[in-house]
């Protein structure tokens, strides 16, 4: 019988054979091995399920999960046994082998409910420099200045019991909604290291539907404006500028 894992890594898949190998290899290479890996598959018809079947270690496969990405991520959380949960999608992979060891140490020292590091974006074969990390505060988060990259976020499972799961009505900004709920109750630790590589390609939701994503993000942030109204006003100015740019590009 395996001991209860410290980490649950949730990987959502759908015909992901082209990229899933990098995801699996990056988890297998971690020096911290108290890991449960949950795969939430939306009905893959390529070699995705074969790759998962051949993957060694403590794993669980949830098959034919329909209902969108938010529902898939929530299913992973509902089935998780670990103390800390991360979502590492099948497009993404951990940047180095000591990510989980670093996260475990920071949770033990800082006694926080959630923490995040940085990402690097891989686009058209080019690995870009890390995104600048703005000092975290709830006001900075509400204003859209604090960047919280979902592939580099780790959340204590007990925190989901307090703030709830991802809003399954949302398609693009479900992570921002969750960070605003978490941030209102608990300040995270911010680790100045790259944790994850994020692939930006034509199939990425945030890339393929940038205008819709921004519109949904505005709606989400408006939900939370009562907690930081001035910060929301700052965000509105940034939103209008960005929407003009996106419409010109379109």
Helices and strands, with pairings:
Layout: E1 7-13, H1 17-28, E2 35-41, H2 48-54, E3 59-62, H3 69-78, E4 84-87, E5 93-94, H4 99-110, E6 114-123, E7 126-127, H5 138-142, E8 153-156, H6 157-163, H7 174-185, E9 189-199, H8 205-208, H9 210-223, H10 229-249
Parallel strand pairs: 1-2, 1-4, 2-3, 6-9
Antiparallel strand pairs: 4-8, 5-9, 6-7, 6-8
Helix pairs in contact: 1-2, 9-10
Domain Glycosyltransferase 2-like: 8-139
Organism: Massilia soli
InterPro entries: Glyco_trans_2-like (IPR001173), Glycosyltransf_2 (IPR050834), Nucleotide-diphossugar_trans (IPR029044)
What is the helical fraction, as a range of percent? 40-55%
Report the CATH topology name: Spore Coat Polysaccharide Biosynthesis Protein SpsA, Chain A
Radius of gyration: 18 Å
Based on DSSP secondary structure assignment, what is the total number of beta strands?
Answer: 9
Structure report:
With 250 residues, the protein is an alpha/beta fold. The protein has helices at residues 17-28, 48-54, 69-78, 99-110, 138-142, 157-163, 174-185, 205-208, 210-223, 229-249; strands at 7-13, 35-41, 59-62, 84-87, 93-94, 114-123, 126-127, 153-156, 189-199. The protein has one domain: Spore Coat Polysaccharide Biosynthesis Protein SpsA, Chain A. Strands 1, 2, 3, 4, 5, 6, 7, 8 and 9 form a nine-stranded mixed sheet that branches. Helix 1 (17-28) runs parallel beside helix 2. The chain is globular and about 50 Å long. The model has no long low-confidence stretch (mean pLDDT 93). It holds the Pfam family Glycos_transf_2. Residues 8-139 form the Glycosyltransferase 2-like domain. It comes from Massilia soli. This is Glycosyltransferase.
